[in-house]
Amino acid sequence: MSARPTVSREEFDALFEAVRTWGRWDRADRGAWNRVTGDHVRRAVGVVRSGVVVPMALPWNTRSGPDNRKPALHHMTDLGDVEGPEPTTHKDFIAADYHGKGVTHLDALSHIAYAGLLYDGRPARENVDAAGARFGAVAALGPLVTRGVLLDLPAVLGVPWLEPGHPVRAGDVRAAEEALGVTIGEGDAVLLRSGHVRRRAELGAWDPATASAGFHVDAVPLLAERGVALLGGDGDSDVRPSPVEGVHSPVHALAVAAMGVPLLDNLDLEALAGATAEAGRYEFLLVVAPLNVPGGTGSPVNPVAVL
Amino acid sequence: MSARPTVSREEFDALFEAVRTWGRWDRADRGAWNRVTGDHVRRAVGVVRSGVVVPMALPWNTRSGPDNRKPALHHMTDLGDVEGPEPTTHKDFIAADYHGKGVTHLDALSHIAYAGLLYDGRPARENVDAAGARFGAVAALGPLVTRGVLLDLPAVLGVPWLEPGHPVRAGDVRAAEEALGVTIGEGDAVLLRSGHVRRRAELGAWDPATASAGFHVDAVPLLAERGVALLGGDGDSDVRPSPVEGVHSPVHALAVAAMGVPLLDNLDLEALAGATAEAGRYEFLLVVAPLNVPGGTGSPVNPVAVL
Amino acid sequence: MSARPTVSREEFDALFEAVRTWGRWDRADRGAWNRVTGDHVRRAVGVVRSGVVVPMALPWNTRSGPDNRKPALHHMTDLGDVEGPEPTTHKDFIAADYHGKGVTHLDALSHIAYAGLLYDGRPARENVDAAGARFGAVAALGPLVTRGVLLDLPAVLGVPWLEPGHPVRAGDVRAAEEALGVTIGEGDAVLLRSGHVRRRAELGAWDPATASAGFHVDAVPLLAERGVALLGGDGDSDVRPSPVEGVHSPVHALAVAAMGVPLLDNLDLEALAGATAEAGRYEFLLVVAPLNVPGGTGSPVNPVAVL
Amino acid sequence: MSARPTVSREEFDALFEAVRTWGRWDRADRGAWNRVTGDHVRRAVGVVRSGVVVPMALPWNTRSGPDNRKPALHHMTDLGDVEGPEPTTHKDFIAADYHGKGVTHLDALSHIAYAGLLYDGRPARENVDAAGARFGAVAALGPLVTRGVLLDLPAVLGVPWLEPGHPVRAGDVRAAEEALGVTIGEGDAVLLRSGHVRRRAELGAWDPATASAGFHVDAVPLLAERGVALLGGDGDSDVRPSPVEGVHSPVHALAVAAMGVPLLDNLDLEALAGATAEAGRYEFLLVVAPLNVPGGTGSPVNPVAVL
């Protein structure tokens, strides 16, 4: 693990200022997804070669554990004995307080406020209450279809996984682009693989709020410059512990609140890592289709890569 | 509305026998999705022209009503006052007993049993219990990427919507293909628009369990012959009241239990109807990405069309 | 139904001022339950004669309807097939957004704020957030054991029920006391029977938010003077439509926010009416045992009368 | 900790046979609560002296932990910003899959089946399905008002708590009766204090499914002979690990399935221990008022002692 520099609050605030895109879009609550036009969609579709389809959602996890403090619910509500008689039906109920470490989900723009402000400078207090988010709701985002790029750091480094706490810095992003033969461009979705899902399978669960690999804030200006539309990974994008004083999730603050870039948290990228390695190509068509929740701050999702 | 013939139970059972594909697939619990190979995916990707992206999920509906007996739940669980201090976070909880008429969802193969048998002849009692479905779970399906075809019946007929109770028969499907310039082929997803979402918006809600437009069972052999992978619509595919004696959801029984064809229920096809009409093309890339629920009988989804 | 006078906002505010007991109790978030001492408990126990036990909770209602907009949930989570093998266990999950008209429940002091203030003048914004209520939580109330008095208005008036919209005024309370041979005293729980549960059983459900029998605000000073600890009924204590301009639930505001008197809503008083009539006595030992929810604004309950 | 003898399955089955009361009651699904007549209620009321009221429910626990695998839910659904304007209202949603170790609850007779049979010999498969329990539902029990007896074992033994795994045997029950000056009689509710709540507060949580103090099966014939109506404790009545081969919860099987005695699990008896010690009397009026859930296998409760 490289040494972790301490970033002061002043440095962070300057960074926030440098990358923010407030006031840029007419449809502000779509944030960086405004970058993705029909042209981007067509180009993304054009990267498909084999037609291999790879999902990225972790199994819906109903067991509590160090990385699943608020287990999702799954109840069978009809076992052929409620409705009937022909055909008989089986039904179930699902539920989740999905933000956290246990459920693969999308963070919409209303999920994060920094210094009281949501993306585009909208005051959080005026825009989010018990009835939901009036700005930055997941329903305003809709689905995203764009090119995805996998930054498979363990593949680049020749390790099974990054250790929890490992920061991914600007130089690491550039090195990965070169090693994997892909260049992040405007409107892309960048998915960071730490290998934490493999590590959990082999070594058992730990509390990723305490230690997880993820982007260091110094990688964010590069991603901002490239005009990414979406960030995601098998963690929650933030390296933990946070390198920024007094800010527990600085990449969340920069991406969501400053740049209007939604986040994909808790992906399972193991199958995608295998598929991209086999194809020798780290780009793919990505489709993310959040549930249409008015006022929602995000959604459980099952993002799909098509290679 | 055409007259509704009565189908006897014997006729229905013969139909069931005629269209069933039990024993055909190694991965039986993927059912008709086994038809969709990499070739189909590439061909589906190849129909994209404009890059216009159209979602199909109804808004997550938390209000009870005649078409929403089990309202979905949406609770804000953090309003910037629970986690903190920087960034502050907004979080929410969603929940749904999603089978029914209120939530856009996918029916997996475990959802329906006819005469006690799930698809592939698997006994329902041995395969589904309070712990979930061991055969035909939504997690076994995974995502579907294929060509979608919209059968926009109101467009074909020059009406704003089909009246509730209107049956769509084999001849109507063929007429729609001809009128819309599209031919249903193997691995396709066929989406039936009745215009009921528009009708509800203009006239108010009613109970679609009592009356809704949908496929008559006599359309099913044609769809079976074409090798469809998925059926869906702005109803639940079944015309109601049922034309089959003693079978409340005959198209469900035929599609899911006999043919292994999952269903998409309660789509909002209004935007897609506009986009297809504007493009003059009724085919598109379709992506359906159910949540990865082990043992789940289906999933809320937000299917995406790319034109 | 007697004519409904209109009460101006000024008159209401004067009433609020007149009955409020802010600053009176050390343990302010127990409100009027501070009135109930060991002496009162012993006296309440002393009214028991036959030992007949009468519960008052409506059945947990999972069906939506005009009086059940947010149906409660009840899911079986183990049918002997999850845990095992011996003994096998059956388990279930219950859930409710219980304020409303469908669930028998207690309103704690944090449930209601008038002009931004909770009971004892505590600002609502500072005391209630997404983490729950810091003042006036149901957990601070604990259980109530006191004398209950049933004001069985239909019995007094010789009618099967009061019609929805019927206001119960100060004179009606006094007349009921006389007719039923009971005098409301300090620390008592007063339960108002309108007979709406019987009416619903015979005539079907309606929306009680639109019309229900209940106390007119002019009955509140009398109840305040008597020092009641708890009000409840088979409605939600408020006559609806509200007789007070701009205040949708004036008895809630007066009882909870001004007087610190919790409310019992949506009781089933039919069995109690039968038992009290048979005994010829309208007083009983009452036990209300809310769930111990820290931060909760109330609780589903099953109040118990012992005659 | 005393040595734990192993009980064979044959011995257990003989015990089951010996204590079972099948066929005894007309209202079989009230089980042993049939023992509690108006006379018992009056006698129970008669033990009240001081009027001190003591609740026994643990706080509603929304945090996962080794003793709370399925955390309860508590969501604020209105923070004065949904309904309004005057008065403003605060509302919340509660939910629990309450069987387990985290929630104070009552086990109804439908909760447990031994060798496929519920209490009274009713086949579990025919009586419990996804729609709920048709026999032995909590709604059939209703509330219980009876005399409660606290077996405060740590007080008897002069220790702060029983260690997890400590079995309470017939001799221990008799010794406790003598030491505490109370004799268990027909219709009584017997509450066993192990002091585990205090231990948890002082030493932290552990998994009580692995080790907890509770009744050894050899104490059950004594309790059966005395005609108890209810058993409960600050564990779940069963000593764990189980002393019976192949039966994970033998006291549950004996009490619920053989004797029709509901159980109170996960009580907080610390305050009651203090109050009984202070009074020097280990009997009290007990009121248990389960929610009125048709088909429910039990209920979260807040049992109340009145001393």
From TrEMBL, chains A, B, C, D:
PANTHER family registered for this protein in UniProt: CYCLASE, PTHR34861
Protein name, entry field: Cyclase family protein
InterPro entries xref list: KFase/CYL, KFase_sf
Pfam families: Cyclase
Domain of life: Bacteria
